[in-house]
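Note on ligand handling. Small-molecule inputs were canonicalized before submission; formal charges were left as drawn, and no protonation-state enumeration was performed. Where a ligand contained multiple stereocentres, the stereochemistry in the source SMILES was retained. For zinc ion, this procedure yielded the string shown in the input block below.
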Amino acid sequence: MVKIDKCPFCGSFEVGSVKSRDGETFAVPTINKTTGKITDYAMLPLMFVCSTCKSVWFNNPNFEGNLTKEFTPASKD
Ligand SMILES: [Zn+2]
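Structure output:
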């Protein structure tokens, strides 16, 4: 687990990770620029928040330079 204890924006130590619900994770997917549809490529980063300046940021300790097919979007139909 990544330990981030200082806000990169304001320097506050009042920071923490944002927990997703059980069985879920945060995702930053890409969209097809022509169709506007969400692709099945995404980054699944950890999310952090600063309670002083309210900044939110991501960290992805597993990122190796390219997005991978990390999930299949659920149908909205
Ligand atoms: Zn801050």
